[in-house]
Design brief:
The structure holds 2 protein chains of 2 kinds.
Chain A lengths: L2 E5 L3 E2 L5 E8 L9 E7 L6 E7 L4 E3 L7 E6 L4 E6 L8 E8 L3 E4 L3 E5 L2
Parallel strand pairs in A: 2-11
Antiparallel strand pairs in A: 1-3, 3-8, 4-5, 4-9, 5-6, 7-8, 9-10, 9-11
Chain B lengths: L3 E4 L2 E3 L6 E7 L7 E6 L6 E5 L3 E2 L7 E6 L2 E6 L8 E9 L4 E4 L3 E4 L1
Classes of the chains: A mainly beta, B mainly beta.
Chain lengths: 117, 108
């Protein structure tokens, strides 16, 4: 069964770029009609969809973050990545990766990223 | 953009109570509505898809209903393990876009 695992720095300085990777195991990221997704959740707050990349490489982003977000895929490593530029304290959150095709399933366990100097 | 409004934002109930959570869409979304359960420190877990379909392995005390703009998640007999925050989620196909409701925290 497919499993997802986020990785990346837990601390990022303001104005810098947040970079995370989601490793996919138990299945190929290139197979199937899936959207590979990033979602975040600030501490004590609600879920926010960041964006996703289709297995073909097409990307779709939340309009509120679109100017700062890039999602890419590396099929050779079976992983996809998130870059969020010019971060501020408001970007402090648990970042989840997930697979989407009508529903989000499965999810990664999530990784906390704190933006602080 | 379609907005998803959940109510209540929190509720307190007793074990065995029937609990109802509503999710209202700002426009007709047919049955493109899913429900998730999130426990503290965990990723959300899919409960209901397509407004009313129970995900495999989810207890039958959970049910979903509705279509168009008004949707409901019902827990027929609240159990201690149901303490969590529940989210509705909608998706648009063209262009692809996903929206979560504001969440409902269920306490005992």
């Amino acid at each position: 069964q497919v499993q997802l695992q986020e990785s990346g720095p837990g601390l990022v300085k303001p104005s810098q770029t947040l970079s995370l990777t989601c490793a996919v195991s138990g299945g190929s990221i290139s197979s199937g009609d899936y959207y590979w997704t990033w979602i975040r959740q600030p501490p004590g707050k609600d879920l926010e969809w960041i964006g996703f990349i289709y297995y073909s490489g097409s990307t779709y982003y939340n309009v509120s973050l679109k100017s700062r977000v890039t999602i890419s895929v590396d099929t050779s490593k079976n992983q996809f990545s998130l870059n969020l530029t010019s971060v501020t304290a408001a970007d402090t959150a648990v970042y989840f990766c997930a697979r989407f095709r009508g529903v989000f399933d499965p999810w990664g366990q999530g990784t906390l990223v704190t933006v602080s100097s | 953009d379609i907005q998803m409004t959940q109510s209540p934002s929190s509720l307190s109930a007793s074990v065995g109570d029937r609990v109802t959570i509503t999710c209202q869409a700002s426009q007709d979304i047919s049955n493109y509505l899913n429900w998730y359960q999130q426990k503290p420190g965990k990723a959300p877990k899919l409960l209901i898809y397509g407004a009313s379909n129970l995900e495999t392995g989810v207890p039958s005390r959970f049910s979903g209903s509705g279509s168009g703009t008004d949707f409901t998640l019902t827990i027929s007999s609240l159990q201690p393990e149901d303490i969590a925050t529940y989210y509705c989620q909608h998706y648009d196909i063209l262009p692809p876009r996903l929206t979560f409701g504001g969440g409902t925290k269920v306490e005992i």
